[in-house]
Amino acid sequence: MTDPSTSSAAIEKLMAVVAQLRNPEGGCPWDLAQTHQSLLPYVLEEAHEVADALRSGDDTELGDELGDLLLQVVLHAQIAAERQAFDLAQIADGISAKLVRRHPHVFGGEARSWDEIKAEERAARGQSDASLSDRLRRKVRGLGPLAGAMVISCKAAAAGFEWDSMEGVWEKVHEELDELKEAVASGDQAHAESELGDLMFTLVNVARWCELSPQEGLNGTNQRFLQRFAKVEAALGGDLSGRNIKELEGLWQKAKAELRSEQGDGA
Fold it and tell me: Angle at the Cα of 187 (from 183 to 190), degrees rounded to 5?
């Protein structure tokens, strides 16, 4: 186990490196141009890469990806400190206090339920538990859109906002698909994006009715696509330019058949 003083020194070194990257005099132009908003895609990307490393069980990869995620935390703390909002020490103090507050059975406080403690914290911040929509809005803010959609779908259905049968769900899928086609044909990108979201949310409801995981389903599709695409690339020597779609489709089907034979699982 690393000595606490060694960990502290390592964190201080990382903070100094990030501060230098953000230094207007001699810093990195890319890092200096970043804001909380511009870094949002990177936070999400690094979090997903940590999740992928956890699934792989590779400790070396996990340590590396956690470092990338830690960089995002320190970078956001540096940006906030520059505008005198908060710094890394305040972040650490805040989460430490929260952990102690939420674990009174460990730190010698009055035994209370987790939900009771969290309700008190929300009340102190002026947040209401008055409606299901309020609770769901807080619940999904820390989730990816796909996972958030499933939570909303499940909770709304449990409250009675539900179709009578699977047939109604399929009707909604076709309705949303038609609306997406019309929106795309109109050339209105914002409208098309909105309709795409509606269709995806309805497909999440299909997953809920059929007890399927949309995240795992999509993750599996991503992996299968990459496996097949790798075979297509190999067959063409890595050069796909100038190939017609008929040739590419033929190689794609061949790749599917080869993988199915290799894996024996319907890949």
Answer: 65
- 264 burial via Cβ count (<10 Å: 0-12, 13-18, 19+): exposed
Please state at what angle helix 145-158 crosses helix 189-209, rounded to 10 degrees.
60
Three-state DSSP class for residue 110: coil
pLDDT digits (tens, 9 = 90+) for 73-97: 999 999 999 999 999 999 999 999 9
Reported as type and span, the H/E element at residue 121 is helix 114-124
Domain assignment present for residue 118? The answer is: no
Does residue 111 belong to any structural domain of this protein? no
Which of residues 167 and 102 earns the better pLDDT score?
167
Here the CATH number for the domain that contains residue 45 is 1.10.287.1080
Tokens of 89: 């020490």
Written as one letter, the residue type at 259 is L
Q: What is 162-211 written as a DSSP string?
A: --SSHHHHHHHHHHHHHHHHHHHHHT-HHHHHHHHHHHHHHHHHHHHHTT
Query: How high is the pLDDT of residue 25?
Result: 96
Tell me how far apart the alpha carbons of residues 64 and 54 are, in angstroms, rounded to a whole number.
Answer: 11
Provide Rg for the chain, Cα atoms.
24
pTM above 0.70, yes or no: no
User: Per-residue pLDDT tens for 27-42?
Assistant: 999 999 999 999 999 9
Is the C-alpha dihedral spanning 229, 234, 238, 244 positive or negative? negative
Report the domain count for the chain: 3
Please give the Cα distance from 200 to 152 (Å, whole number): 13
Q: Are 156 and 225 within one domain?
A: no
Structural domain that includes position 21: 4-86
Q: Which amino acid, one-letter code, is at 110? A: E
Same domain? For 182 and 238 the reply is no
